[in-house]
Amino acid sequence: xxxxxxxxxxxxxALFAGGALYISVVxxxxxxxIGPAAAIAEFRAxxxxxxxxxxxxxxxxxxxxxxxxxxxxxxxxxxxxxxxxSVIPFTLTVxxxxxxxxxxxxxxxxxxxxxxxxxxxxxxxxxSVLSSLGLVVLLARAxxx
Length: 145
What we know:
Layout: H1 2-32, H2 36-72, H3 75-85, H4 87-103, H5 110-144
């Protein structure tokens, strides 16, 4: 069971980190270049599709990584899983107000939309960095096992 949990944790971390990096490096910068009205429309279409996928990958990584750490008696699996899993409370506490304003019933006007999207991009980089660090820890630990 332990090897399966380690594999699931690592794959989940890779999926989350890969998706987060793609959004931070490619999608969001492109979104900011198409103008505020189009950027808001694209964000509002993208977010409901991406959020469950990314939340599931982060939760799966957290649970599988912690279970693997417990079975293997290896704190490194827990640290990698916690780094990826930390994006969940970060998103629910720090990013939620920005998300709610961007997704609210009345889309923000151009100046506010641009400011909110720029803030969202900076906050999303935190998710990209945390998940990438977690993935590196998990991959390093897997290679050294």
